Structure formats: C-alpha cells, structure tokens
Amino acid sequence: PGQRQKHHVAGTCGPVGSIPELTVFSLAGHGHGAMRQWWLAKSGQGVLKKDEVFDYNAQKFESVDFKINTGDTLTSHCVYETMNFAEGTVLRGGDETKDEMCLIMIGYYPALPIGGCMTGYANDQECECDFSDTDAAGSCAAHCAGNTESIAQCQRASTCNECTALGSACGWCSASSFQICTATEFSADCIAAGATFTSSAEATNCAAVTAAGSQCALLDKCGQCAQQAGCVWCVTDATSGEGNCLLDFTTPTVNSAGVCAHPAFGGVIDAKCEVSVGTLQQE
Fold it and tell me: What's the CA gap between 271 and 268, in Å, rounded?
C-alpha cells in the first residue's frame, strides 16, 4: 500500500523435511525500488543476515556460514517505504521493476534437487516495523502486538474525523500552530503543549476543532519538515541526511551519544537541516 514508511512483510519456509545437513555459504536479499531493508532468521538461532540500508542499485551475494537441518524453519523479512505513492495505491508483487518482491537467495552444498519456497502475503494485520523494532529472534510480533495502528499510521489521517475513526490507538491534537493525528500515548504531551487532544471516544467533539492537519510523517525531506509548523527533522543517517519528520512536542532530548530516544525512530535532532550532505533530503 502507498503512504507507508516501513511496511513490513514476512514469509516462512519450514519446518524443513528430511534432508542431509546443508551448509549455506552465500546469501543475497532481493527487492525493487521501494525495498529498504531485509533480514533472514532461523528458528532457534535468530537473525542470520541482514541489510538495514538496502540499495536497489547495489545488490550482491555475500559470504555466510550456517547450517540447515531437518526441522529448521527459515523466515525472510522485508521492509518497504512507499511514501512516494498515494494512499490507496496497491504496489503489487511481481517480476517487473514497477512491482515489488521479497526474495532471499542462498547458495548451499551438497547439491539437492530442490526448488524455492514461495509464501503468499495477506495484509490482514498491518503494523509498521523495521529491523530496529525486532526482538532477538528477528520477529516484529512483540512490537506489533496490540499496536496495529502505529504512530506513522495515525499521522496519515488528515482530519479529526479520519483520525478518531482509526480507533483508540490514535487521537487528534489541535493547537493554533498545528493540528495532527498522533498516537494516544502522546496525549499528555499534546495537552502539555497547550493543545487539545480528541480521542476516538470524543469523536463528536471533532466539529469544534480545526479540520486540517500538518501531518509531519508525510514530509520526507528535511527542508519541507523544517518549514512546517509543529514538526522537527530527526536524522537517522548522518552521512546521507536521511531521517524522519516528527511532531515537535514528541521530540525527545538528545542523549550523550547524540541519538534520539524516540519510541518510533532513532537518530539525531537536526531541526535546521544542517547536515552538509544528503542534498536530496533537503530539497
């Protein structure tokens, strides 16, 4: 779907049937233009290999060394960023470059007459998750449990009515300088900032608040974010200047390592877009 910052999909192969022990010596993750991360996890062992900065134009096989035995289960994970596509757009799986895929390819020995493992994808419980949100096993399950409406999903709502219709996980924060749909966990921060927080249980109050939202999460360039009232840029890659646009009243203090201690994103605060590189991010 369009307008997702870290849309996660996973496919599981296994338990593996009766086979001799296989040694995996080479591995590559493959996707198209919207893919941003991939990782491969194995039952009982956790993450075997990951790429948190996947580049469509720089795909390659890398050396690995692990075993696959009878009874093992492998799970592939891919994360996509689709903010360049409109809400409601369907990005289909397929072989063409305009489509997407989540493919993990392995080289192994001894040779066996086996093919691949294909897993279908059902978008029945969407939760935005990337590798930084996973547990030791490489799973997003704990992060997504009871939280299918993530912070970014809340911020895609552009009116109070749209926001409160998302359910108890989201609420409309309205002030003279900004109006935005945000996670209910930030209701106290919203009120502390002098704004009004309208929850799903108070949806009838929407008529009394401003209709249009600033939608920080939809701004994917530092310059755009800095010019939007109520938003601040949080850099996740100091080399490229890439980052996320956050609601300013949820911006945390920077710790001793210069990292944002934000529950949804990590990175350094760069409200003035002072990163010298990453020109594309500041356009």
Answer: 9
207: three-class secondary structure by DSSP: helix
28 vs 106: CA distance, rounded Å: 7
Q: pLDDT (tens digit, 9 = 90+) per residue, 1-37? A: 787 888 888 888 878 888 899 999 999 999 999 999 9
Q: Which residue has the tokens 């924060």?
A: 173
Beta strand 243-247 with 231-235 is antiparallel
Tell if the pTM clears 0.85, that is, is over it: no
- Judged by DSSP in three states, 63 sits in strand
Give every CB contact of residue 164 below 8 A, 6+ residues apart in sequence: 170, 171, 172, 198, 199, 200, 202, 203, 206
Q: Is 245 helix (H, G, I), strand (E, B) or coil?
A: strand
Residue appearing with tokens 């493959």: 30
- Alpha helices in 165-218, H assignment, sequence order: 187-192
Euclidean distance between CA atoms 182 and 155, whole angstroms: 6
Spatial neighbors of 245 by CB under 8 A, at least 6 apart, are: 216, 217, 218, 219, 220, 224, 225, 228, 231, 232, 233, 234
Helix (H, G, I), strand (E, B) or coil at 222: helix
